[in-house]
C-alpha cells in the first residue's frame, strides 16, 4: 500500500522519510568549517584534491563553509594578478559551495591573536574564526598555522589540513 511504502526509509539518512524533527536536527548538526586562504585556493584550483572535496561537501550542504573577508580579498587579488578571466569561475565556485563570509572580529580580539602568530593577516583570520565558534579551521599553511602549538593551545577547534578534515569526517561517519 501507499502508506506502507512511505513508512520504509531508503536509508538511515533519508530526508524523504524523515520526520521534520529529524531533518531539523540534522541541519543543526552541520559542521562549521572555516577555510583559510591556502585551503580555499587549493580547493578552487585543484580538480582532484581533498581541498576540492571539501568544497563539494559545502555544495552538498553536508558542512557549513565559512571564510573571512580577508580570505576573499586575498583570493580575488591572486585571481586578478594571475588570471583575471577566472574571476567569474571563482564567484561561481564560491556560490556553488555555499561559502559564507563571516563578520570581522573586533580589533581588540585581532590584537590579542597577534601574540599567537607573527603575521597580522593570520591574526585577523584567527580572530574571525574564534568569533564564529567553528569546528574546524582548514589550512595548508604549515608554518603559520599547522605547526603553531601556541595557536592549538588557545582554540577550541581543530586546526587541520584538507586531508585531515576528510579523514576525520570519514572516521566520524563510518
Order of helices and strands: HHEHHEHHEHHEHHEH
The global form is globular
- Uncertain segments are 1-18, 22-28
- Tell me what portion of residues adopts beta-strand conformation: 5-15%
| Share of helical residues | 55-70%
Give the class from helix and strand content and strand pairing: alpha/beta
Q: Give the biggest beta sheet.
A: 5 strands, parallel
Rg over CA atoms: 18 Å
Count of individual beta strands:
5
> What is the assembly state of the chains in this entry?
single chain
Strands of the widest sheet, in order across it, are 3-2-1-4-5
Count of alpha and pi helical runs? 11
Question: Which helices and strands occur, and which strands form pairs?
Answer:
Elements: H1 2-7, H2 20-28, E1 31-35, H3 37-45, H4 50-59, E2 63-67, H5 69-82, H6 87-96, E3 100-101, H7 107-114, H8 120-131, E4 136-138, H9 142-146, H10 149-152, E5 158-160, H11 162-173
Parallel strand pairs: 1-2, 1-4, 2-3, 4-5
Helix pairs in contact: 3-4, 4-6, 4-11, 7-8
Sum up the structure in keywords.
5-stranded parallel beta sheet, single chain
Amino acid at each position: 500500500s501507499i502508506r506502507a511504502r512511505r513508512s520504509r526509509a531508503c536509508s538511515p539518512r533519508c530526508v524523504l522519510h524523515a520526520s521534520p524533527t529529524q531533518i531539523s536536527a540534522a541541519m543543526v548538526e552541520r559542521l562549521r568549517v572555516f577555510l583559510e586562504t591556502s585551503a580555499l585556493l587549493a580547493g578552487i584550483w585543484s580538480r582532484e584534491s581533498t581541498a576540492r572535496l571539501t568544497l563539494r561537501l559545502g555544495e552538498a550542504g553536508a558542512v557549513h563553509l565559512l571564510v573571512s573577508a580577508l580570505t576573499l580579498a586575498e583570493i580575488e587579488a591572486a585571481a586578478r594578478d594571475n588570471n583575471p578571466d577566472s574571476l567569474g569561475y571563482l564567484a561561481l565556485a564560491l556560490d556553488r559551495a555555499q561559502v559564507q563570509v563571516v563578520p570581522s572580529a573586533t580589533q581588540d580580539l585581532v590584537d590579542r591573536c597577534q601574540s599567537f602568530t607573527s603575521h597580522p593577516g593570520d591574526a585577523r583570520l584567527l580572530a574571525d574564526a574564534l568569533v564564529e565558534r567553528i569546528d574546524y579551521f582548514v589550512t595548508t599553511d604549515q608554518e603559520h598555522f599547522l605547526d603553531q602549538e601556541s595557536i592549538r593551545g588557545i582554540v577550541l577547534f581543530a586546526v587541520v589540513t584538507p586531508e585531515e578534515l576528510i579523514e576525520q569526517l570519514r572516521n566520524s561517519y563510518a
